[in-house]
Amino acid sequence: MPARRKKVLLTLLELHRNSKRSIKHEEIVNATNLGRGIVRRELEILKCLELIDSCPGMEGGYIPTIQVYGGTEWLN
Predict the structure, then answer these.
(1) Which residues neighbour 19 within 8 Å (Cβ) at sequence distance 6 or greater?
(2) What's the predicted TM-score (pTM) here?
């Protein structure tokens, strides 16, 4: 997994673990200092890889899936 994608995923995991809620795109941007477009693209790729899910609506955001917690093969 590319370093930038891993950084976005690990940031999402940490933010979700600390808050127990879905995480907004902007929160990941602020925590990683990566551009909005880069973070959005990486989140879409992570979603296609089934490592995260998106939650629609005003209270929506992104959450890690069980695959992230099930193993470490995604770290490669």
Answers:
(1) none
(2) 0.86
